[in-house]
Amino acid sequence: MSFRKSWIIVTIVILGLAAFIPIAQAQRQDFECRQCSVTTYSTVHRSPELTIVSGDQKSIIQSTHESKLFDNWTLHLVGVWKGIDGKFSWSGFSKEMAPDGEFIIWEFYGDSESKATIAKPIYATGKWKGVKGERKSTLIKAGKPIVQGTDQFCQKQVGWIELAK
After folding, report:
1. Among candidates 31, 23, 26, 24, which has minimal Cα distance to 163?
2. What dihedral do alpha carbons 134, 141, 102, 31 form, nearest 10°?
3. Quick one: pLDDT at residue 21?
4. 37, β-bridge pairs
5. pLDDT of residue 18
6. Which of 66, 75, 84, 137 measures 20 to 30 Å from 156, CA to CA?
7. DSSP assignment of 62-75
8. Of 109, 115, 160, residue with least CA distance to 138
9. CA-wise closest residue to 90 among 137, 48, 127
10. Cβ distance 60 to 72 under 8 Å?
């Protein structure tokens, strides 16, 4: 057998075997949403120098991106806000659930100087399992609280996620 024929056969065998090797590829998607919420606060301490409150938030998410990713998801968030000399920071966790019941848990943090909240997924179920990503939330509009100890507001969320394949 000639060298050229041997080379062609080896190449065909390698390409044939490579077709059976599963290749995991991540699928990155950008998203943009509007999240409208009500948060109920419990005051731990309030003074001119130090304020500490916990919050329990419920929300609905509306996609504003052509992909409609996260459209009609619901959210439950728990967090802690700390204010020292008028500068605030916050952190916590949110569980965000799709209409089919699958969900992603995000960890978030933010501060009053940046006026933004950054969140990253830390756990997920179903097709979202193993998801990676990041999002930034900024305030769109806040209304006058209708009940003392609450806030009503809408935020813009912009980010990306990568689904494991």
Report:
1. 26
2. -40
3. 43
4. 59, 153
5. 46
6. 84
7. EE-STT-TTTTEEE
8. 115
9. 137
10. yes
Mean pLDDT of the 138-157 span = 95
Q: What is the model's pTM?
A: 0.81
28 exposure class (CB count in 10 Å sphere: 0-12, 13-18, 19+): exposed
3-state secondary structure (DSSP) of residue 10: helix
Is residue 54 within 8 A of residue 46, CB to CB? The reply is: no
What are the residues whose beta carbons fall under 8 Å from the beta carbon of 101, sequence distance 6 or more?
Answer: none
Instruction: Tell me how far apart the alpha carbons of residues 20 and 4 are, in angstroms, rounded to a whole number.
Output: 25
| 139 closest CA partner among 160, 107, 120, 115 | 115
> Quick check: 79 and 62 in contact, CB under 8 A?
no
CATH of the domain spanning 26-163: 2.40.350.10
Residues 61 and 82: their CA atoms lie apart, in Å, by: 26
Query: Which of 12, 84, 24, 5 minimizes the C-alpha distance to 50?
Result: 84
CA atoms of 96 and 104, how far apart (whole Å): 5
